[in-house]
Amino acid sequence: MFDPVIAPSGTLLGLLQRGRGDGTLHALTAPRPEALAALNQCVLRDPRHDWQVENRSLYYARLYLDLNGELDEIEAHLFGAEDVLDADESRTGLALAVLGHLASYGRRDALELLRRYAAHGSNWAWALDELALRDDDAGLRALAAPVLARFPADPEGDAELAAAVRDAFEPRPWRLWAEDPRESVATRVRAAHETGCFDRWQRQMRPAGPRPGWSVRAVFEWAQQGLERGAALHVPAARCLTAVAGPEDRAEIIQAAKDGGDGARCTALRYLADGNDPDVLGLIEGAVATGSTVVVDAAVAAFERMRSLAAVDQARGWARRPDALGAAAGRVLACRGGAQDRDLVLAALREAVRGDGPDAPTLWTLVDGTGRLGIACAAPVLRHIYRETASSHLRGRAARALAATDPSFATGFAVECLWDCEETTREIAARHAETGDARVVERLRRLAADPAEEAEVQTAVRSRIGPEETAV
Predict the structure, then answer these.
(1) What percent of the residues of the chain are helix, what percent strand, and what percent coil, each to the nearest 5?
(2) pLDDT of 63-77, one tens digit each?
(3) pTM for the full model?
Protein backbone atom coordinates (compact mmCIF):
# COMPACT_ATOMS: atom_id res chain seq x y z
CA MET A 1 0.00 0.00 0.00
CA PHE A 2 1.35 3.43 -0.99
CA ASP A 3 1.73 6.15 1.62
CA PRO A 4 -1.42 8.28 1.61
CA VAL A 5 -1.40 11.90 0.51
CA ILE A 6 -2.65 13.97 3.44
CA ALA A 7 -4.37 17.27 2.75
CA PRO A 8 -3.45 20.41 4.73
CA SER A 9 -4.66 20.41 8.31
CA GLY A 10 -6.79 23.51 7.77
CA THR A 11 -9.05 21.83 5.19
CA LEU A 12 -12.09 19.66 5.88
CA LEU A 13 -10.47 16.72 4.07
CA GLY A 14 -7.23 17.14 6.03
CA LEU A 15 -9.10 17.20 9.34
CA LEU A 16 -11.08 14.07 8.48
CA GLN A 17 -8.02 12.24 7.22
CA ARG A 18 -6.29 12.92 10.54
CA GLY A 19 -9.35 11.78 12.50
CA ARG A 20 -9.48 15.03 14.43
CA GLY A 21 -12.57 15.97 16.36
CA ASP A 22 -12.70 19.26 14.48
CA GLY A 23 -13.19 17.20 11.32
CA THR A 24 -16.57 16.01 12.54
CA LEU A 25 -17.54 19.44 13.85
CA HIS A 26 -16.64 21.10 10.54
CA ALA A 27 -18.35 18.40 8.48
CA LEU A 28 -21.61 18.89 10.37
CA THR A 29 -21.64 22.59 9.49
CA ALA A 30 -20.37 22.23 5.89
CA PRO A 31 -22.68 21.70 2.90
CA ARG A 32 -23.76 18.05 3.06
CA PRO A 33 -22.49 17.07 -0.44
CA GLU A 34 -19.07 18.53 0.36
CA ALA A 35 -18.90 16.74 3.71
CA LEU A 36 -19.94 13.39 2.21
CA ALA A 37 -17.44 13.73 -0.63
CA ALA A 38 -14.60 14.27 1.86
CA LEU A 39 -15.84 11.43 4.07
CA ASN A 40 -16.06 9.00 1.15
CA GLN A 41 -12.56 9.91 0.01
CA CYS A 42 -11.21 9.05 3.47
CA VAL A 43 -13.02 5.71 3.66
CA LEU A 44 -12.17 4.61 0.12
CA ARG A 45 -8.53 5.80 0.24
CA ASP A 46 -7.38 4.87 3.72
CA PRO A 47 -5.43 7.89 5.03
CA ARG A 48 -3.66 6.10 7.89
CA HIS A 49 0.11 5.66 7.83
CA ASP A 50 -0.30 2.56 10.01
CA TRP A 51 -3.70 1.06 9.19
CA GLN A 52 -3.18 -1.85 11.59
CA VAL A 53 -2.86 0.41 14.63
CA GLU A 54 -4.66 3.71 14.11
CA ASN A 55 -8.42 3.92 14.57
CA ARG A 56 -10.76 5.52 12.05
CA SER A 57 -13.67 3.15 11.45
CA LEU A 58 -15.92 4.17 14.37
CA TYR A 59 -15.09 7.84 13.76
CA TYR A 60 -16.17 7.63 10.10
CA ALA A 61 -19.19 5.44 10.86
CA ARG A 62 -20.50 7.97 13.38
CA LEU A 63 -20.15 10.72 10.79
CA TYR A 64 -22.07 8.65 8.22
CA LEU A 65 -24.84 8.38 10.78
CA ASP A 66 -24.82 12.09 11.59
CA LEU A 67 -24.91 12.99 7.88
CA ASN A 68 -27.37 10.19 7.03
CA GLY A 69 -24.86 9.25 4.38
CA GLU A 70 -25.61 6.83 1.55
CA LEU A 71 -23.37 3.83 0.95
CA ASP A 72 -23.35 3.88 -2.87
CA GLU A 73 -19.69 4.91 -3.09
CA ILE A 74 -18.60 2.20 -0.67
CA GLU A 75 -20.58 -0.38 -2.63
CA ALA A 76 -18.94 0.68 -5.90
CA HIS A 77 -15.51 0.51 -4.25
CA LEU A 78 -16.08 -2.98 -2.85
CA PHE A 79 -17.55 -4.53 -5.98
CA GLY A 80 -15.52 -2.76 -8.66
CA ALA A 81 -13.12 -4.54 -11.00
CA GLU A 82 -10.17 -3.48 -8.82
CA ASP A 83 -11.37 -5.87 -6.12
CA VAL A 84 -10.35 -8.76 -8.38
CA LEU A 85 -7.04 -7.19 -9.41
CA ASP A 86 -5.93 -5.97 -5.97
CA ALA A 87 -6.72 -8.39 -3.14
CA ASP A 88 -4.66 -6.51 -0.53
CA GLU A 89 -6.87 -6.29 2.53
CA SER A 90 -5.71 -2.72 3.23
CA ARG A 91 -7.63 -1.59 0.11
CA THR A 92 -11.01 -2.56 1.53
CA GLY A 93 -10.40 -3.11 5.25
CA LEU A 94 -11.39 0.37 6.39
CA ALA A 95 -14.59 0.35 4.34
CA LEU A 96 -15.56 -3.05 5.73
CA ALA A 97 -14.85 -1.95 9.31
CA VAL A 98 -17.00 1.16 8.80
CA LEU A 99 -19.82 -1.05 7.50
CA GLY A 100 -19.44 -3.25 10.56
CA HIS A 101 -19.95 -0.30 12.91
CA LEU A 102 -22.88 0.95 10.85
CA ALA A 103 -24.46 -2.49 11.04
CA SER A 104 -24.08 -2.44 14.82
CA TYR A 105 -25.94 0.89 14.84
CA GLY A 106 -28.82 -0.75 12.97
CA ARG A 107 -28.06 0.25 9.37
CA ARG A 108 -29.60 -2.64 7.45
CA ASP A 109 -28.00 -1.52 4.17
CA ALA A 110 -24.56 -1.89 5.74
CA LEU A 111 -25.36 -5.39 6.97
CA GLU A 112 -26.56 -6.47 3.52
CA LEU A 113 -23.40 -5.05 1.90
CA LEU A 114 -21.23 -7.01 4.29
CA ARG A 115 -23.13 -10.21 3.55
CA ARG A 116 -22.80 -9.73 -0.21
CA TYR A 117 -19.10 -8.97 0.05
CA ALA A 118 -18.44 -11.96 2.30
CA ALA A 119 -20.05 -14.14 -0.36
CA HIS A 120 -18.38 -12.61 -3.43
CA GLY A 121 -15.52 -10.22 -2.49
CA SER A 122 -11.78 -10.80 -2.40
CA ASN A 123 -11.37 -9.68 1.22
CA TRP A 124 -14.19 -11.96 2.33
CA ALA A 125 -12.46 -13.05 5.55
CA TRP A 126 -12.48 -9.49 6.90
CA ALA A 127 -16.17 -9.09 6.05
CA LEU A 128 -16.91 -12.42 7.73
CA ASP A 129 -15.13 -11.27 10.89
CA GLU A 130 -17.28 -8.13 10.94
CA LEU A 131 -20.41 -10.20 10.50
CA ALA A 132 -19.33 -12.62 13.23
CA LEU A 133 -19.71 -9.76 15.70
CA ARG A 134 -22.98 -8.36 14.34
CA ASP A 135 -25.02 -10.83 12.31
CA ASP A 136 -27.50 -13.39 13.59
CA ASP A 137 -27.06 -17.16 13.26
CA ALA A 138 -29.35 -17.39 10.24
CA GLY A 139 -27.40 -14.75 8.33
CA LEU A 140 -24.10 -16.49 9.05
CA ARG A 141 -25.42 -19.94 8.14
CA ALA A 142 -26.54 -18.60 4.76
CA LEU A 143 -22.90 -17.75 3.99
CA ALA A 144 -21.57 -21.27 4.55
CA ALA A 145 -22.14 -22.46 0.98
CA PRO A 146 -20.62 -19.45 -0.87
CA VAL A 147 -17.60 -19.32 1.48
CA LEU A 148 -16.87 -23.04 1.23
CA ALA A 149 -17.27 -22.87 -2.55
CA ARG A 150 -14.11 -20.72 -2.61
CA PHE A 151 -12.08 -23.81 -1.69
CA PRO A 152 -11.97 -26.60 -4.31
CA ALA A 153 -12.72 -30.10 -3.03
CA ASP A 154 -9.18 -31.34 -3.60
CA PRO A 155 -6.08 -31.63 -1.39
CA GLU A 156 -4.91 -28.09 -2.18
CA GLY A 157 -8.32 -26.58 -1.54
CA ASP A 158 -8.72 -28.55 1.69
CA ALA A 159 -5.33 -27.27 2.89
CA GLU A 160 -6.33 -23.67 2.13
CA LEU A 161 -9.61 -24.17 3.96
CA ALA A 162 -7.81 -25.60 6.99
CA ALA A 163 -5.53 -22.54 7.06
CA ALA A 164 -8.54 -20.20 6.80
CA VAL A 165 -10.28 -21.92 9.73
CA ARG A 166 -7.08 -22.00 11.80
CA ASP A 167 -6.27 -18.33 11.22
CA ALA A 168 -9.80 -16.89 11.51
CA PHE A 169 -9.86 -13.87 13.80
CA GLU A 170 -13.47 -14.54 14.83
CA PRO A 171 -14.26 -18.28 15.09
CA ARG A 172 -18.05 -17.96 15.53
CA PRO A 173 -19.07 -18.59 11.86
CA TRP A 174 -16.85 -21.66 11.61
CA ARG A 175 -18.26 -23.07 14.84
CA LEU A 176 -21.79 -22.58 13.53
CA TRP A 177 -20.89 -24.24 10.27
CA ALA A 178 -19.29 -27.18 12.08
CA GLU A 179 -22.75 -27.88 13.56
CA ASP A 180 -24.65 -27.16 10.32
CA PRO A 181 -27.51 -29.61 9.62
CA ARG A 182 -26.16 -30.01 6.07
CA GLU A 183 -23.76 -32.88 6.41
CA SER A 184 -21.64 -31.73 3.46
CA VAL A 185 -20.98 -28.40 5.21
CA ALA A 186 -20.45 -29.70 8.75
CA THR A 187 -18.18 -32.58 7.74
CA ARG A 188 -15.89 -30.38 5.68
CA VAL A 189 -15.57 -27.64 8.30
CA ARG A 190 -14.89 -30.12 11.11
CA ALA A 191 -12.21 -31.83 9.01
CA ALA A 192 -10.60 -28.45 8.27
CA HIS A 193 -10.61 -27.59 11.98
CA GLU A 194 -8.95 -30.88 12.90
CA THR A 195 -6.30 -30.41 10.20
CA GLY A 196 -5.54 -26.88 11.44
CA CYS A 197 -5.11 -28.11 15.02
CA PHE A 198 -2.79 -30.89 13.83
CA ASP A 199 -0.71 -28.39 11.81
CA ARG A 200 -0.32 -26.15 14.85
CA TRP A 201 0.76 -29.15 16.97
CA GLN A 202 3.33 -30.16 14.36
CA ARG A 203 4.84 -26.67 14.33
CA GLN A 204 5.11 -26.71 18.11
CA MET A 205 6.91 -30.05 17.95
CA ARG A 206 9.48 -28.74 15.47
CA PRO A 207 10.77 -25.49 17.02
CA ALA A 208 13.57 -23.71 15.22
CA GLY A 209 16.36 -21.83 16.91
CA PRO A 210 18.74 -22.31 19.83
CA ARG A 211 18.91 -25.57 21.76
CA PRO A 212 20.09 -26.28 25.32
CA GLY A 213 23.83 -26.62 25.46
CA TRP A 214 24.60 -24.04 22.79
CA SER A 215 27.81 -22.08 23.22
CA VAL A 216 28.22 -18.32 23.03
CA ARG A 217 29.79 -18.73 19.61
CA ALA A 218 26.82 -20.80 18.40
CA VAL A 219 24.40 -18.08 19.48
CA PHE A 220 26.44 -15.47 17.61
CA GLU A 221 26.45 -17.66 14.50
CA TRP A 222 22.66 -18.11 14.72
CA ALA A 223 22.18 -14.33 14.93
CA GLN A 224 24.45 -13.82 11.92
CA GLN A 225 22.62 -16.46 9.87
CA GLY A 226 19.34 -14.72 10.62
CA LEU A 227 20.75 -11.38 9.51
CA GLU A 228 21.92 -12.90 6.24
CA ARG A 229 18.35 -14.18 5.67
CA GLY A 230 16.94 -10.73 6.37
CA ALA A 231 15.70 -11.60 9.86
CA ALA A 232 16.99 -9.55 12.81
CA LEU A 233 17.53 -12.15 15.56
CA HIS A 234 19.84 -10.23 17.86
CA VAL A 235 17.10 -9.59 20.44
CA PRO A 236 16.20 -13.27 21.00
CA ALA A 237 19.89 -14.14 20.62
CA ALA A 238 20.72 -11.77 23.50
CA ARG A 239 18.15 -13.56 25.64
CA CYS A 240 19.82 -16.84 24.71
CA LEU A 241 23.15 -15.45 25.83
CA THR A 242 21.64 -14.76 29.24
CA ALA A 243 20.99 -18.49 29.53
CA VAL A 244 24.27 -19.84 28.15
CA ALA A 245 26.94 -17.24 29.00
CA GLY A 246 28.96 -17.29 32.20
CA PRO A 247 31.55 -14.92 33.69
CA GLU A 248 34.27 -16.71 31.75
CA ASP A 249 32.59 -15.69 28.45
CA ARG A 250 32.61 -11.95 29.11
CA ALA A 251 35.87 -11.31 27.25
CA GLU A 252 34.53 -13.03 24.12
CA ILE A 253 31.28 -11.03 24.28
CA ILE A 254 33.15 -7.74 24.78
CA GLN A 255 35.31 -8.52 21.77
CA ALA A 256 32.24 -9.30 19.66
CA ALA A 257 30.71 -5.96 20.68
CA LYS A 258 33.89 -4.18 19.53
CA ASP A 259 34.53 -5.73 16.14
CA GLY A 260 32.43 -8.83 15.58
CA GLY A 261 30.20 -9.49 12.59
CA ASP A 262 27.00 -7.47 12.49
CA GLY A 263 24.85 -10.25 13.96
CA ALA A 264 27.30 -10.95 16.78
CA ARG A 265 27.95 -7.29 17.45
CA CYS A 266 24.24 -6.43 17.72
CA THR A 267 23.67 -9.42 20.00
CA ALA A 268 26.60 -8.61 22.26
CA LEU A 269 25.61 -4.94 22.61
CA ARG A 270 22.05 -5.86 23.53
CA TYR A 271 23.22 -8.47 26.06
CA LEU A 272 25.71 -6.13 27.71
CA ALA A 273 23.23 -3.24 27.86
CA ASP A 274 20.55 -5.42 29.43
CA GLY A 275 23.07 -6.50 32.06
CA ASN A 276 24.33 -2.93 32.70
CA ASP A 277 27.90 -4.00 32.00
CA PRO A 278 30.33 -1.30 33.14
CA ASP A 279 31.95 -1.11 29.68
CA VAL A 280 28.80 -1.04 27.59
CA LEU A 281 28.38 2.73 27.25
CA GLY A 282 31.80 3.06 25.66
CA LEU A 283 31.06 0.12 23.39
CA ILE A 284 27.77 1.70 22.31
CA GLU A 285 29.53 4.97 21.48
CA GLY A 286 32.12 3.05 19.48
CA ALA A 287 29.45 1.10 17.62
CA VAL A 288 27.68 4.31 16.60
CA ALA A 289 30.97 5.72 15.32
CA THR A 290 32.18 2.68 13.38
CA GLY A 291 29.28 0.29 12.84
CA SER A 292 27.00 -0.35 9.91
CA THR A 293 23.44 0.99 9.88
CA VAL A 294 22.20 -2.26 11.42
CA VAL A 295 24.75 -2.04 14.23
CA VAL A 296 24.06 1.66 14.87
CA ASP A 297 20.33 0.99 15.15
CA ALA A 298 20.92 -1.92 17.51
CA ALA A 299 23.35 0.09 19.65
CA VAL A 300 20.92 3.01 19.94
CA ALA A 301 18.03 0.69 20.81
CA ALA A 302 20.15 -1.07 23.44
CA PHE A 303 21.09 2.25 25.03
CA GLU A 304 17.47 3.41 25.18
CA ARG A 305 16.53 0.28 27.13
CA MET A 306 19.04 0.96 29.89
CA ARG A 307 17.59 2.02 33.24
CA SER A 308 20.75 2.67 35.26
CA LEU A 309 21.71 6.02 36.74
CA ALA A 310 24.94 5.81 34.76
CA ALA A 311 22.99 5.62 31.50
CA VAL A 312 20.86 8.64 32.40
CA ASP A 313 23.95 10.59 33.39
CA GLN A 314 25.63 9.64 30.12
CA ALA A 315 22.54 10.74 28.21
CA ARG A 316 23.03 14.24 29.61
CA GLY A 317 26.47 14.30 28.02
CA TRP A 318 25.27 12.89 24.69
CA ALA A 319 22.03 14.86 24.34
CA ARG A 320 23.55 17.63 22.20
CA ARG A 321 25.22 15.24 19.74
CA PRO A 322 23.89 15.80 16.19
CA ASP A 323 23.51 12.09 15.45
CA ALA A 324 21.36 9.07 16.26
CA LEU A 325 22.97 8.69 19.68
CA GLY A 326 22.16 12.30 20.54
CA ALA A 327 18.53 11.78 19.54
CA ALA A 328 18.41 8.60 21.64
CA ALA A 329 19.88 10.49 24.60
CA GLY A 330 17.05 13.01 24.38
CA ARG A 331 14.52 10.18 24.48
CA VAL A 332 16.26 8.58 27.47
CA LEU A 333 16.00 11.84 29.37
CA ALA A 334 12.37 12.21 28.32
CA CYS A 335 11.63 8.81 29.84
CA ARG A 336 13.89 8.79 32.87
CA GLY A 337 15.36 12.25 33.36
CA GLY A 338 14.50 14.67 36.13
CA ALA A 339 13.45 18.30 36.40
CA GLN A 340 17.02 19.37 35.67
CA ASP A 341 16.73 17.81 32.20
CA ARG A 342 13.76 19.88 31.01
CA ASP A 343 15.85 22.17 28.81
CA LEU A 344 17.56 19.23 27.09
CA VAL A 345 14.25 17.46 26.43
CA LEU A 346 12.67 20.67 25.12
CA ALA A 347 15.66 21.25 22.83
CA ALA A 348 15.37 17.68 21.52
CA LEU A 349 11.64 18.18 20.90
CA ARG A 350 12.17 21.40 18.98
CA GLU A 351 15.04 19.97 16.96
CA ALA A 352 13.00 16.90 16.00
CA VAL A 353 10.10 19.03 14.75
CA ARG A 354 12.44 21.38 12.86
CA GLY A 355 14.48 18.60 11.32
CA ASP A 356 11.97 15.84 10.66
CA GLY A 357 8.53 17.45 10.88
CA PRO A 358 5.45 16.69 13.00
CA ASP A 359 5.40 12.98 12.16
CA ALA A 360 8.95 12.09 13.23
CA PRO A 361 8.97 8.74 15.10
CA THR A 362 11.19 10.20 17.82
CA LEU A 363 8.40 12.60 18.80
CA TRP A 364 6.32 9.87 20.45
CA THR A 365 8.78 9.52 23.32
CA LEU A 366 9.70 13.21 23.46
CA VAL A 367 6.07 14.31 23.63
CA ASP A 368 5.39 11.86 26.46
CA GLY A 369 8.46 13.11 28.31
CA THR A 370 7.43 16.72 27.87
CA GLY A 371 4.15 15.99 29.59
CA ARG A 372 5.81 13.86 32.28
CA LEU A 373 8.25 16.64 33.15
CA GLY A 374 5.56 19.33 32.93
CA ILE A 375 7.50 21.58 30.52
CA ALA A 376 4.99 24.42 30.27
CA CYS A 377 6.96 26.42 27.69
CA ALA A 378 6.71 23.45 25.30
CA ALA A 379 2.96 24.05 24.83
CA PRO A 380 3.33 25.95 21.51
CA VAL A 381 5.37 23.10 20.01
CA LEU A 382 2.90 20.53 21.34
CA ARG A 383 -0.01 22.47 19.82
CA HIS A 384 1.80 22.49 16.47
CA ILE A 385 2.31 18.72 16.63
CA TYR A 386 -1.32 18.23 17.63
CA ARG A 387 -2.58 20.20 14.63
CA GLU A 388 -0.21 18.93 11.97
CA THR A 389 0.62 15.29 12.65
CA ALA A 390 -1.07 12.71 10.46
CA SER A 391 -0.75 10.11 13.24
CA SER A 392 -3.81 9.96 15.45
CA HIS A 393 -1.75 8.15 18.11
CA LEU A 394 0.85 10.92 18.24
CA ARG A 395 -1.92 13.50 18.37
CA GLY A 396 -3.37 11.68 21.38
CA ARG A 397 0.00 11.77 23.10
CA ALA A 398 0.25 15.49 22.35
CA ALA A 399 -3.21 15.97 23.87
CA ARG A 400 -2.11 14.15 27.03
CA ALA A 401 1.01 16.31 27.25
CA LEU A 402 -1.02 19.48 26.69
CA ALA A 403 -3.35 18.47 29.50
CA ALA A 404 -0.28 18.53 31.78
CA THR A 405 1.35 21.69 30.41
CA ASP A 406 -1.24 24.01 28.82
CA PRO A 407 -3.80 25.79 31.03
CA SER A 408 -5.96 26.49 27.96
CA PHE A 409 -6.33 22.81 27.06
CA ALA A 410 -9.62 22.32 28.93
CA THR A 411 -11.38 25.05 26.96
CA GLY A 412 -9.48 24.50 23.72
CA PHE A 413 -8.32 21.23 22.19
CA ALA A 414 -9.99 19.13 24.90
CA VAL A 415 -13.40 20.10 23.50
CA GLU A 416 -12.71 18.85 19.99
CA CYS A 417 -10.98 15.76 21.40
CA LEU A 418 -14.40 14.50 22.51
CA TRP A 419 -15.02 13.73 18.82
CA ASP A 420 -11.52 12.32 18.14
CA CYS A 421 -11.04 8.99 16.36
CA GLU A 422 -8.88 7.49 19.14
CA GLU A 423 -10.65 6.26 22.27
CA THR A 424 -7.67 7.15 24.47
CA THR A 425 -7.87 10.74 23.25
CA ARG A 426 -11.61 10.85 23.89
CA GLU A 427 -10.92 9.57 27.41
CA ILE A 428 -8.44 12.40 28.05
CA ALA A 429 -11.00 14.88 26.78
CA ALA A 430 -13.75 13.42 28.93
CA ARG A 431 -11.60 14.00 32.01
CA HIS A 432 -10.52 17.55 31.15
CA ALA A 433 -13.00 19.31 28.82
CA GLU A 434 -14.65 22.32 30.41
CA THR A 435 -18.34 21.55 30.95
CA GLY A 436 -19.30 25.21 30.74
CA ASP A 437 -19.46 24.65 26.97
CA ALA A 438 -22.92 23.34 26.02
CA ARG A 439 -21.40 21.17 23.27
CA VAL A 440 -19.30 19.39 25.89
CA VAL A 441 -22.23 18.44 28.09
CA GLU A 442 -24.27 17.16 25.15
CA ARG A 443 -21.33 15.18 23.79
CA LEU A 444 -20.60 13.61 27.18
CA ARG A 445 -24.20 12.47 27.43
CA ARG A 446 -24.07 10.97 23.96
CA LEU A 447 -20.83 9.09 24.65
CA ALA A 448 -22.24 7.74 27.91
CA ALA A 449 -25.26 6.32 26.07
CA ASP A 450 -23.45 4.99 22.98
CA PRO A 451 -23.10 1.16 23.16
CA ALA A 452 -20.19 1.30 20.70
CA GLU A 453 -18.11 3.53 22.97
CA GLU A 454 -15.19 2.03 24.87
CA ALA A 455 -15.69 1.28 28.57
CA GLU A 456 -12.74 3.47 29.61
CA VAL A 457 -14.26 6.47 27.86
CA GLN A 458 -17.65 5.90 29.46
CA THR A 459 -16.03 5.56 32.87
CA ALA A 460 -14.31 8.91 32.37
CA VAL A 461 -17.57 10.47 31.19
CA ARG A 462 -19.48 9.24 34.23
CA SER A 463 -16.85 10.71 36.51
CA ARG A 464 -17.86 14.13 35.15
CA ILE A 465 -21.67 13.81 35.01
CA GLY A 466 -24.16 12.21 37.35
CA PRO A 467 -26.21 9.09 36.53
CA GLU A 468 -29.35 11.16 36.00
CA GLU A 469 -27.58 13.14 33.26
CA THR A 470 -26.65 10.11 31.16
CA ALA A 471 -30.18 9.38 30.04
CA VAL A 472 -31.05 10.43 26.49
Answers:
(1) 70, 0, 30
(2) 999 999 999 999 999
(3) 0.89
